[in-house]
């Protein structure tokens, strides 16, 4: 392998194995799978991805089946959560499922340890309670993989203290929340599960923030150039805070179904064919991540705004979620009803020359890599942001839930890589922002230039000797000298 370390000094590492706990959501699975691929390709390390029974969607199954042989997956046993309130937040469900899995996980990790040279356990952001299982199973190292950015990590590491120093609700604060190295975040834009302190999900997040300190190290899917001040602060070791390694951007390098040349043309492939027929940088890609859906009213305004903008668009459409903005289909990316039925009357017919609508799911990284894609209207899920930056596509920010609102603040006011859609979400405003980005009017040109700069830094970091590659090398080098 060219430049790969497994031909060099780490060849002896070929038998090392890592177990990774993936809490629900394609946005968690995709970067952890990428981490596993990098460990295999560069260090000869094999991995087992441990997934929750609650997330066995068709999209996830297809994705897991497409992974290289060095990466196995094991579905953990189902957990009974029927005692939880019907309106329990996603974060609560994931955290409870994780805690209740500790005994089964301990057995599974012990089993892996009998067969493999298990050098480390990695859990993602809602999975720190599983460190208990790893410790009981005798796994020598426990890492937290943080699939989002250094701003969100800084917030969670400070949360146990903020819980004491800010007694009221974040959304009622007059001043933005100021944290070391971070862009000031208005209270209403702070992480969604922290917005109502009476809810269980808030307490869970405080709990996770405290438990992150039990990790031997924290691996973060971000890179210095996009949040340089936060990186500078976290680089300095602090008592009680594990060392932080920015190892990103780890983005999806392979879309499920890519290799199946014999498969009939799918709507997913059709969108790439459609892009082939569009001029360079002329299309805005519109997508709200693996589970995001808009309320009906916003969906209609977005349709009319795209039409009004006069720009070409490729839109991954899902049925609306009118239960607030937290997506009901987080656990299953496949939309259940015909999503096109919710669009304004005549919209599909009127825009058929300039727009393409795809139900549920598109090969996002391929769309972003396509020469015809010139902008990305995104919910600011961190994977989507990284994919956009790696492909040099400037963003229009339309955050929905999780940490997306604070990502939008960081991207617009910190990195300068996006323009945010105004809160009112009216069609004229949407059209104006889309035009600004696509035509390069107003802030559009500056954002485009900044994204080009970040693209270069992101890709440089992943090269041999680059910052992300060296950070991961440093982590793996500790395993070879270890006791297992
Ligand atoms: N994704 C995709 N096709 C889609 C929607 C999403 O391939 O139609 C992928 C996308 O490329 C990204 C992930 O799903 O890797 C979504 O992760 P993100 O963090 O952006 O958002 P989340 O799904 O966690 O809200």
Automatic annotation (TrEMBL):
Query: Which EC class is this protein assigned?
Result: transferase
Task: State the EC number(s).
Answer: 2.4.1.-
Single Gene Ontology MF annotation: UDP-glycosyltransferase activity
Short name of one Pfam family for this protein? UDPGT
Q: Does the keyword Transcription regulation apply?
A: no
Q: What keywords are annotated for this sequence in UniProt? A: Glycosyltransferase, Transferase
Q: Which residues fall in a coiled-coil region?
A: none
The record ties this protein, via InterPro entries, to: UDP_glucos_trans, UDP_glycos_trans_CS
Instruction: Spell out the family assignment given in the record's similarity comment.
Output: Belongs to the UDP-glycosyltransferase family.
Q: What is this protein called?
A: Glycosyltransferase
Gene symbol?
LOC127755431
